[in-house]
Amino acid sequence: MHDLVIENALVFDGTGRPPRHVDISIDHDRVTDVGPDLGLSRERIDAEGLALAPGIIDSHTHFDAQITWDPMVTPSPEHGVTTVLIGNCGFTIAPCKPEHRDVTMRNLVRVEGMSLKAMQQGIDWEFETFADYLELLERRGVGPNVGAFVGHSSIRTYVMGEDAPLRAATATEIEAMRRLVEDAIDAGAVGFATSTSPSHNGADGNPMPSRLADENELRTLVGVLGNKNKGTFMLTKGASTPVPWLETLAADTGRAVVVAALLHNSTDPDTVFQDLDGIEAARSRGNQMWGQVSCCPLSTEFSLRAPYPFEGIAAWKPAMQADSDESYKALLADVSFRNSIRAELTRPAVVRLFNNEWEKLSVIETVLEKNRNIENCTLAELAREHHTDPLDFLLDLVLEENLDTTFLSVLLNSDEDAVTRLLTHSCSSIALSDAGA
Ligand SMILES: [Zn+2]
Hints:
The chain is of the alpha/beta class. It is built from 14 helices and 16 strands. Bound molecules: zinc ion.
């Protein structure tokens, strides 16, 4: 007699084959048989009208903070997720000294759009080391299975303090970081994660700390995985870390390298496929690599108080560093600032979220009654209609509305045929939910 039989469900078995109506028996928490007429069971569930599938592994989440106050990491389990990987891009909250808690939270506000208030009220800071953090999660219990990367930006902040987002590390600092990565892997981290992406900026308009790492630092820290013969290297890639270079890390360490975020850019349509083909070639040479792709368009709703799509533009940096609304507004009104943005946007970039596609950027909600008529219009339309430049139109509008106009920008992955090719590529892994962010 079985412990449990689930009957009449439409079963998606996870192999990609068409779904079928079959019963499933479970004994001691394991699926033991699939088919019709499975015999007697102590418990039966009639799943008529429902779908049954293996639990989803969400391999790219940012639940590091939320999981300390919400062990169920809602709402992911409601979507069928039974395993989450946290610490992606190296944006962790451990290890963390008490004096770095504030900057750690402010980094997450800018880079992942998390709420400062929620983190201030919610994070249980009963840890300092990565091992303490994992121990806290164990002690409190978690809903889904959790695998945690140890994060480069946290490691760097722990060792270098306020210099972490400003400069390269010394040999002594790299050695201190190496030991922290080693400790974290020993404590149970599933790997080491980092970001070299120019779209990843943190507190005070500085780059996220990992972006300041030189080649030696990256090689040394990823090298820990090779020495221990354990763990995966995950990174969100910028121009300084192309696939062939990442392959050398996979080759040197013998460990898997997972490359994010492979999104399709309509203004540079081939690059993402070249990356995936590079990964495929690496695999044919015996080096384990994967590309993280997404089934969703990357779109973002924003106001000029936190304009994530623009923050990857180098010429935007002074705007992130403005220390008051007044100096920020003066900059937005400044013609030479506007010209420097325009000039940069006309140049190609390996990785950039916003690529001068003003027809994909629209006004969602205005503050002033008199501007209501432009809601749902694209900046391309508005600029044409008013015989002006789209950036000028946008900045003049937000200055008139005290920075509170809401926009929607569809940045990447909006070409469905291209996305189909990404999802079906032999080296891609469907990821990038960014849950928890
Ligand atoms: Zn991420």
